[in-house]
Design a protein that fits this description.
- The chain is an alpha/beta fold.
- The chain has 2 domains: 36-135 and 265-332, D-Maltodextrin-Binding Protein, domain 2; 137-263, D-Maltodextrin-Binding Protein, domain 2.
- It has 13 helices and 10 strands.
- Strands 1, 2, 3, 4, 5, 6, 7, 8, 9 and 10 form a 10-stranded mixed β-sheet that branches.
- Strand 5, helix 8 and strand 6 form a beta-alpha-beta unit.
- Helix 3 runs antiparallel to helix 12 (293-302) and helix 6 (109-117) packs across helix 13 (311-332).
- It is globular.
Length: 334
């Protein structure tokens, strides 16, 4: 081989390393630089997403999956938690961010119920609806070593003494407490006598269950799935109209003879006082996010069902949900 050929061979690895370095730099820059539309929307600010609950729950998971899925669209984002009172403490804080389109807050059915149950002075009229993102069945679980094996066993204990069955779930007035009340109501029991233990996040409810301090638990499937798969918790029913793909052997309540159906949805809102143009830019951003491969992977990972409504459609949906939940809260005495 000629001397020049030998030099080429010696230099080739370094040349390839240089090319790879350039590629990595380009990818890094591409992933961290917001699009032109995002730059105009954010005006130099970093996007921040509030999860109005403690870490470990559904809102926290949604915010962090959004953070990852928005990377290519807006660059780096910050997720922070403001827990308490079914999201109404976070909601109160969020209202004070008036006119800031770089701020988003995750919310959902739980917050609608908590506003009604807590008679919150701050309501969803104080924020700007952007988009519904997902829907999810709730799952009823018992500790893995519980004598309760099926939903029929739980029903038998409820019918014997409704107050003796303690339920661990999310915030007061949230989807979980509504579901427990609806189950009691369908069994011709007094929903006001349901022994419900409220928690600020899914992690706290899991701790209560694993300590043996509650008979049964209620939450979104994704929040309890790791403990179900490990055997620490046993799933006995789901609340939607169809079985859940990640829990193929777990029946729905309706299949089990309890005529109750309830699904939890989650969405995102912006602060009050943003312009119509800023609102539309955020709607477009959420649309782009929900159509991304990263978001599809998040849905599969979490077991969420896509349910996208944006802008005015989401506003109308919120109005109807507030009316529906207010009626249920009053009817159940919650």
């Amino acid at each position: 081989m000629s001397e020049s050929g030998s030099q080429v061979r010696r230099l080739l690895p370094f040349a390839l390393a240089g090319v790879l370095a350039v590629v990595l730099v380009v990818v890094s820059i591409t992933r961290s630089e917001p699009s032109q539309a995002a730059q105009e929307l954010l005006d130099g600010e970093q996007m921040k997403i509030m999860a109005p609950a403690d870490p470990g729950g559904g809102w926290d998971s949604t915010a962090r999956e959004m953070q990852a899925s928005l990377q290519d669209l807006v660059g780096r984002t910050e997720v922070y938690n403001v827990g308490g009172a079914g999201g109404t403490i976070g909601l109160s804080n969020f209202r004070n961010l008036e006119g800031q389109p770089s701020q988003l807050m995750v919310m959902g059915l739980v917050m609608v119920g908590a506003i009604a149950a807590n008679d919150s002075a701050v309501t969803l009229d104080d924020v700007t609806p952007i988009a519904e993102l997902t829907t999810e069945s709730l799952v009823i679980v018992v500790p893995g070593d519980s004598d309760i094996r099926t939903i029929d066993d739980l029903v038998a204990e409820l019918e014997q003494d409704v107050g003796s069955v303690s339920w661990a779930g999310g915030s007061a007035g949230g989807a979980e407490q509504i579901l427990a009340g609806l189950v009691a109501q369908d069994l011709d029991l007094d929903p006001a006598e349901v022994n419900y233990i409220a928690h600020d996040g899914g992690g706290e409810a899991i701790a209560t269950l694993l300590s043996g301090s509650a008979t049964a638990g209620l939450s979104g499937v994704s929040e309890f799935l790791p403990q179900i798969e490990s055997g620490d918790l046993r799933a006995i029913a789901v609340s939607g109209t169809e079985q859940v793909e990640s829990l193929p052997d777990v029946p729905t309540l309706q299949e089990s003879g309890v005529d109750v159906e309830l699904t939890n949805w989650r969405g995102v809102v912006a602060p009050p006082g943003i312009t119509s143009g800023e609102r539309q830019a955020l709607v477009d951003l959420m649309t782009d996010m929900t159509e991304s491969e990263e978001w599809d992977e998040a849905l599969a990972r979490q077991g969420w069902t896509p349910s996208v409504k944006t802008g005015d459609d989401f506003s109308q949906f919120l109005d109807s949900e507030v009316d529906r939940v207010d009626d249920v809260i009053a009817e159940l005495g919650l």
